[in-house]
Write a structure and sequence with these properties.
Elements: H1 5-19, H2 27-30, H3 41-52, H4 61-80, H5 88-100, H6 103-110
Protein name: Gamma-tubulin complex component
Region (Disordered): 76-112
Biased composition (Basic residues): 101-112
């Protein structure tokens, strides 16, 4: 560590607020090494999936909103998933089909 007073102050701050057992934010709150679901996995997974849905850094607004609708539909289906729903895969295809609309309609929306 550099021999600098500011570095020492910052290290002391980290110890005092995050590492020591008497700290304000104890390691049990923020450390996720022993947890199955680590803090950023869901966020990184969502971002990866979202970026794969687009073929350019600045997608058409209709393509963007359509993909967000698809994500929302799938999330809604997952929330509604119940044991008495025998064929969730078929329901998902049906709901996604409804969200997408017909290919001709989707094409017209994207090319306005």
């Amino acid at each position: 560590m550099p021999d600098d007073e500011r570095c020492q102050q910052f290290a002391d701050y980290l110890l005092h607020n995050y590492v020591q057992t008497t700290s304000r934010f104890q390691p049990e709150i923020w450390a996720c090494f022993t947890k199955d679901n680590r803090t950023t996995n869901a966020c990184e997974s969502f971002h990866s999936r979202l970026s794969r849905m687009f073929y350019s850094p600045s997608p058409n607004i209709f393509v963007f909103t359509e993909n967000l609708r698809l994500i929302e539909t799938e999330a809604s289906l997952k929330r509604k998933k119940t044991p008495n729903h025998p064929n969730l895969a078929q329901a998902r295809k049906t709901e996604i089909g409804k969200a997408r609309g017909s290919p001709k309609r989707l094409f017209r929306r994207q090319n306005r």
